[in-house]
Amino acid sequence: MNKEQQDRRKKSPVQIRNKKASFEYFFVDTFTAGIVLTGTEIKSIRAGKASLVDSFCYINKGEMWVQGMNISPYFYGSYANHEAKRPRKLLLTKKEIRSLETESKTPGFTIIPILIFIDENGRAKVDIALAKGKKEYDKRLTLKEKEDRREMDRARKYY
Q: What pTM does this model have?
């Protein structure tokens, strides 16, 4: 991901993050994928009513799917409102799917969504990552680094 793409993501009005993922996993590689949405799901995402907690991606018959992503039903929706936790198809190229499939078959690796955002054309996109699980001591190290950064920021603030 280059600097221009990062700037676009920061300007997005909606940024729904999977904060737990960065604590639980090391990110090896990241990809940006579109989501196939139905009905009022995009309105709920624009309202910020989505969650990536406990969600994961899998490949079935050459297609990438995300399972466990919660998009709350739209408040003003009618009887045709969507299901909150249905599997949703992700749009990636065949080359990207093949590379993710081969890499995710390695023990210890998984594919997880890390961010939902709205691009400049108004479409919902998902950043997914090929991730390797952290061990307990890695998590402790991450917490220590985070605490050290906070202390340094506090010290800078007072001086």
A: 0.80
